[in-house]
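Human: I'm a chemist; would you kindly supply sequence and C-alpha coordinates for a protein?

Assistant:
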Amino acid sequence: MNEFGSPVPVNRYEATDDWHAVDRYFTSTLVREDSILAVARDSGDATTMPNAEVAANQGAFLEILAKIAGARRVLEFGTLAGYSTIWLARAVGEQGQVVTLELEPENAAVAKANFHAAGVSHQIETIVGPATESTERLINDDTEPFDFVFIDADKPNNPAYLAAALKLTHSGAVIVIDNVVRNGAVADAASADPRVQGVRTVAEDIAAHPDLDGTALQTVGEKGWDGLIIARRR
Protein backbone atom coordinates (compact mmCIF):
# COMPACT_ATOMS: atom_id res chain seq x y z
CA MET A 1 0.00 0.00 0.00
CA ASN A 2 1.15 3.55 -0.63
CA GLU A 3 0.62 6.52 1.65
CA PHE A 4 -2.75 7.16 -0.02
CA GLY A 5 -4.03 3.72 0.97
CA SER A 6 -3.95 2.30 -2.56
CA PRO A 7 -2.11 -0.83 -3.62
CA VAL A 8 1.03 -0.15 -5.62
CA PRO A 9 1.49 -2.28 -8.74
CA VAL A 10 5.17 -3.19 -9.03
CA ASN A 11 6.56 -4.69 -12.26
CA ARG A 12 3.03 -5.05 -13.54
CA TYR A 13 2.85 -2.44 -16.25
CA GLU A 14 4.55 -3.32 -19.51
CA ALA A 15 4.62 -1.22 -22.64
CA THR A 16 1.38 -1.83 -24.53
CA ASP A 17 0.97 -1.90 -28.29
CA ASP A 18 -0.71 1.51 -28.09
CA TRP A 19 2.24 2.99 -26.20
CA HIS A 20 4.62 1.61 -28.83
CA ALA A 21 2.46 2.96 -31.64
CA VAL A 22 2.36 6.46 -30.16
CA ASP A 23 6.13 6.49 -29.63
CA ARG A 24 6.66 5.30 -33.19
CA TYR A 25 4.36 8.01 -34.55
CA PHE A 26 5.99 10.91 -32.68
CA THR A 27 9.49 9.57 -33.28
CA SER A 28 8.94 9.17 -37.02
CA THR A 29 7.25 12.59 -37.25
CA LEU A 30 9.42 14.74 -34.98
CA VAL A 31 12.68 13.02 -34.08
CA ARG A 32 15.78 13.13 -36.28
CA GLU A 33 17.43 9.88 -35.26
CA ASP A 34 20.00 9.24 -37.98
CA SER A 35 21.70 5.93 -38.75
CA ILE A 36 24.60 6.70 -36.42
CA LEU A 37 22.26 7.14 -33.47
CA ALA A 38 20.29 4.03 -34.47
CA VAL A 39 23.49 1.96 -34.51
CA ALA A 40 24.49 3.37 -31.11
CA ARG A 41 21.08 2.49 -29.70
CA ASP A 42 21.25 -1.05 -31.05
CA SER A 43 24.75 -1.48 -29.66
CA GLY A 44 23.26 -1.29 -26.19
CA ASP A 45 22.76 -5.04 -26.58
CA ALA A 46 26.54 -5.39 -26.20
CA THR A 47 26.59 -3.64 -22.81
CA THR A 48 26.01 -5.00 -19.33
CA MET A 49 22.45 -3.58 -19.39
CA PRO A 50 20.81 -4.26 -22.76
CA ASN A 51 17.81 -2.06 -23.66
CA ALA A 52 18.52 0.33 -20.80
CA GLU A 53 19.28 3.36 -22.99
CA VAL A 54 16.73 6.14 -23.37
CA ALA A 55 14.25 5.90 -26.24
CA ALA A 56 14.80 8.00 -29.37
CA ASN A 57 12.16 10.56 -28.44
CA GLN A 58 13.66 10.81 -24.95
CA GLY A 59 17.12 11.38 -26.42
CA ALA A 60 15.70 14.20 -28.51
CA PHE A 61 14.01 15.58 -25.39
CA LEU A 62 17.36 15.67 -23.57
CA GLU A 63 18.94 17.44 -26.53
CA ILE A 64 16.21 20.09 -26.54
CA LEU A 65 16.43 20.58 -22.76
CA ALA A 66 20.18 21.06 -22.98
CA LYS A 67 19.77 23.58 -25.78
CA ILE A 68 17.06 25.46 -23.86
CA ALA A 69 19.44 25.60 -20.90
CA GLY A 70 22.13 27.00 -23.19
CA ALA A 71 24.43 24.22 -22.00
CA ARG A 72 28.04 24.14 -23.13
CA ARG A 73 29.26 21.74 -20.46
CA VAL A 74 27.30 18.60 -19.60
CA LEU A 75 27.92 15.97 -16.92
CA GLU A 76 26.36 12.54 -17.43
CA PHE A 77 26.11 9.77 -14.85
CA GLY A 78 25.85 6.43 -16.69
CA THR A 79 27.22 6.07 -20.22
CA LEU A 80 26.36 2.51 -21.31
CA ALA A 81 26.63 2.52 -25.12
CA GLY A 82 26.75 6.33 -25.26
CA TYR A 83 23.39 6.82 -26.96
CA SER A 84 22.20 9.71 -24.77
CA THR A 85 25.79 11.02 -24.68
CA ILE A 86 25.75 11.56 -28.45
CA TRP A 87 22.45 13.46 -28.22
CA LEU A 88 23.98 15.67 -25.52
CA ALA A 89 27.23 16.19 -27.45
CA ARG A 90 25.23 17.38 -30.42
CA ALA A 91 23.29 19.72 -28.13
CA VAL A 92 26.40 21.47 -26.78
CA GLY A 93 27.93 21.91 -30.23
CA GLU A 94 31.50 21.83 -31.48
CA GLN A 95 32.80 24.11 -28.73
CA GLY A 96 31.00 22.25 -25.95
CA GLN A 97 32.01 19.29 -23.82
CA VAL A 98 30.30 16.28 -22.27
CA VAL A 99 31.93 14.46 -19.37
CA THR A 100 30.33 11.03 -19.02
CA LEU A 101 30.89 8.65 -16.11
CA GLU A 102 30.72 4.87 -16.60
CA LEU A 103 31.44 2.12 -14.11
CA GLU A 104 32.11 -0.77 -16.51
CA PRO A 105 35.12 -0.68 -18.87
CA GLU A 106 33.35 -2.88 -21.44
CA ASN A 107 30.49 -0.38 -21.67
CA ALA A 108 32.92 2.50 -22.05
CA ALA A 109 34.62 0.65 -24.93
CA VAL A 110 31.30 0.26 -26.75
CA ALA A 111 30.49 3.92 -26.15
CA LYS A 112 33.86 5.18 -27.37
CA ALA A 113 33.41 3.30 -30.66
CA ASN A 114 30.02 4.98 -31.06
CA PHE A 115 31.47 8.42 -30.27
CA HIS A 116 34.11 7.90 -32.94
CA ALA A 117 31.49 6.85 -35.50
CA ALA A 118 29.37 9.89 -34.62
CA GLY A 119 32.32 12.26 -35.00
CA VAL A 120 31.95 13.62 -31.47
CA SER A 121 34.91 11.95 -29.70
CA HIS A 122 36.70 15.30 -29.38
CA GLN A 123 33.74 16.69 -27.42
CA ILE A 124 33.45 13.81 -24.93
CA GLU A 125 35.56 12.78 -21.96
CA THR A 126 34.69 9.31 -20.69
CA ILE A 127 35.75 8.58 -17.12
CA VAL A 128 35.66 4.91 -16.08
CA GLY A 129 35.11 3.89 -12.46
CA PRO A 130 32.62 4.44 -9.62
CA ALA A 131 30.91 7.76 -10.24
CA THR A 132 31.18 8.82 -6.61
CA GLU A 133 34.97 8.56 -6.88
CA SER A 134 35.09 10.17 -10.31
CA THR A 135 33.04 13.17 -9.19
CA GLU A 136 35.17 13.52 -6.06
CA ARG A 137 38.23 13.89 -8.29
CA LEU A 138 36.42 16.43 -10.46
CA ILE A 139 35.50 18.42 -7.35
CA ASN A 140 39.05 18.27 -5.96
CA ASP A 141 40.45 19.34 -9.34
CA ASP A 142 38.22 22.42 -9.25
CA THR A 143 36.65 21.45 -12.57
CA GLU A 144 34.87 24.17 -14.53
CA PRO A 145 31.18 24.11 -13.54
CA PHE A 146 28.64 22.23 -15.63
CA ASP A 147 25.48 23.75 -17.10
CA PHE A 148 23.47 20.54 -17.41
CA VAL A 149 23.55 17.20 -15.57
CA PHE A 150 21.89 13.95 -16.62
CA ILE A 151 21.72 11.28 -13.90
CA ASP A 152 20.94 7.84 -15.31
CA ALA A 153 23.02 5.38 -13.31
CA ASP A 154 22.45 3.07 -10.32
CA LYS A 155 19.40 4.42 -8.53
CA PRO A 156 20.40 3.76 -4.89
CA ASN A 157 23.21 6.29 -5.36
CA ASN A 158 20.93 9.03 -6.73
CA PRO A 159 21.26 11.14 -3.54
CA ALA A 160 25.08 10.96 -3.72
CA TYR A 161 25.01 11.88 -7.41
CA LEU A 162 22.77 14.86 -6.73
CA ALA A 163 25.09 16.04 -3.95
CA ALA A 164 28.06 15.80 -6.31
CA ALA A 165 26.15 17.55 -9.08
CA LEU A 166 25.41 20.46 -6.75
CA LYS A 167 29.14 20.88 -6.11
CA LEU A 168 29.88 20.79 -9.82
CA THR A 169 27.23 23.20 -11.16
CA HIS A 170 26.37 26.87 -10.94
CA SER A 171 23.24 29.00 -10.66
CA GLY A 172 20.85 28.26 -13.51
CA ALA A 173 22.13 24.72 -14.11
CA VAL A 174 19.59 22.03 -14.97
CA ILE A 175 19.63 18.55 -13.44
CA VAL A 176 17.62 15.66 -14.95
CA ILE A 177 17.21 12.34 -13.14
CA ASP A 178 15.85 9.41 -15.15
CA ASN A 179 13.85 6.28 -14.23
CA VAL A 180 12.15 7.72 -11.16
CA VAL A 181 8.68 6.15 -11.34
CA ARG A 182 9.75 2.51 -11.08
CA ASN A 183 6.44 1.16 -12.44
CA GLY A 184 4.61 3.13 -9.75
CA ALA A 185 6.63 1.71 -6.87
CA VAL A 186 8.00 5.17 -6.05
CA ALA A 187 4.69 5.90 -4.29
CA ASP A 188 5.33 3.09 -1.79
CA ALA A 189 7.11 4.61 1.20
CA ALA A 190 7.60 1.16 2.72
CA SER A 191 9.28 -0.34 -0.35
CA ALA A 192 12.32 -2.49 0.43
CA ASP A 193 13.74 -1.84 -3.04
CA PRO A 194 16.90 0.30 -2.66
CA ARG A 195 16.27 1.75 -6.15
CA VAL A 196 12.89 3.05 -5.02
CA GLN A 197 14.33 4.46 -1.82
CA GLY A 198 17.13 6.09 -3.81
CA VAL A 199 14.54 7.89 -5.92
CA ARG A 200 12.41 8.88 -2.93
CA THR A 201 15.43 10.22 -1.05
CA VAL A 202 16.70 12.27 -3.98
CA ALA A 203 13.21 13.72 -4.52
CA GLU A 204 13.08 14.72 -0.85
CA ASP A 205 16.59 16.17 -1.07
CA ILE A 206 15.54 18.33 -4.02
CA ALA A 207 12.39 19.47 -2.20
CA ALA A 208 14.39 20.43 0.90
CA HIS A 209 17.21 22.23 -0.92
CA PRO A 210 16.81 26.02 -0.76
CA ASP A 211 18.49 26.56 -4.14
CA LEU A 212 16.57 24.04 -6.20
CA ASP A 213 13.24 24.12 -8.00
CA GLY A 214 12.02 20.75 -9.21
CA THR A 215 9.17 18.76 -10.63
CA ALA A 216 8.59 15.23 -11.93
CA LEU A 217 6.78 13.85 -14.96
CA GLN A 218 5.44 10.35 -15.51
CA THR A 219 5.94 8.86 -18.97
CA VAL A 220 4.62 5.85 -20.85
CA GLY A 221 6.04 4.49 -24.09
CA GLU A 222 8.25 1.80 -25.52
CA LYS A 223 10.23 1.83 -22.26
CA GLY A 224 7.12 1.14 -20.22
CA TRP A 225 5.79 3.22 -17.32
CA ASP A 226 8.47 5.49 -15.90
CA GLY A 227 9.35 9.17 -15.62
CA LEU A 228 11.93 11.77 -14.72
CA ILE A 229 12.72 14.55 -12.30
CA ILE A 230 13.82 17.94 -13.62
CA ALA A 231 15.44 20.41 -11.26
CA ARG A 232 17.01 23.83 -11.76
CA ARG A 233 19.42 25.70 -9.55
CA ARG A 234 18.18 29.15 -8.62
